[in-house]
Amino acid sequence: MSLQDPLPNDGLILKMWIGEAARYRNHLLRLDLESRARRFGGGVSDSYIRNYVTSSMWLDSVVHGFFVDGKLRGAAELRPIGGRLSKQAEAAFSVEKDWQSHGVGSALLERTLLTARNRGIAHLHMACLADNRRMQQLARKFDAELSFDFGEVIAEVESPHPTPLSMVREMVSDGQSFATAILDAQSRLLKAT
To answer: Would you say 52 and 114 are in contact if contact means Cβ atoms under 8 Å apart?
Structure first.
């Protein structure tokens, strides 16, 4: 799958902005128990998710969302390890059950890799539970090195150096994300009146 491939139900991958934290929280709360455990490496409560989004989101993270009809159905979070200037980051993914196995994870990972590349992140780490075959297949699709460690699988992907073309690709998608967020906000305001 590439950025040009269609997503199911005309879904869009968009960068999320700080004002969309509630949408991210609601998406994580809608995850079924298995998907939630896979996203967080074990079972977590609704309270944990609320605190997670409130206290840790957006500090250094870049979050991309998969939206269908304005509703967030999947997300990829890129977070530097060791501060903003670090050459390493971790990535975490969540996709609601009905949208799994439709290419959403691939599209989110591709966008995350582009973002990591353009920030000079050379090594991207992804951890998943040992039984999460879907995530392992996704990581292998992007040439990740997999290692097994105490019931977890660590996938590492190396990013190439940024190029002018990769920077333009991200700027164009960010512009689309921003314009879509503005139109969506206006649409919600109109519906409320």
So the answer is: no
Which pTM was predicted? Answer: 0.80
Cβ atoms of residues 28 and 44 within 8 Å: no
What is the distance between the alpha carbons of residues 177 and 89, in angstroms, rounded to a whole number?
22
Question: Regarding beta strands 88-95 and 123-129, do their DSSP bridges make them parallel or antiparallel, or are they unpaired?
Answer: parallel
pLDDT in tens, 14-72: 998 888 899 999 999 999 999 999 999 889 999 999 999 987 766 678 999 999 988 99
CA-CA distance, 122 to 54, in Å (whole number)? 28
Torsion angle of alpha carbons 54, 88, 82, 130, nearest 10°? 60
Please state, as a whole number, how many other Cβ atoms lie within 10 Å of the Cβ of residue 137: 11
Task: Estimate to the nearest angstrom the gap between the alpha carbon of 144 and the chain centroid.
Answer: 17
| DSSP conformation class of 34 | H
Contact by Cβ (8 Å): 61, 79: yes
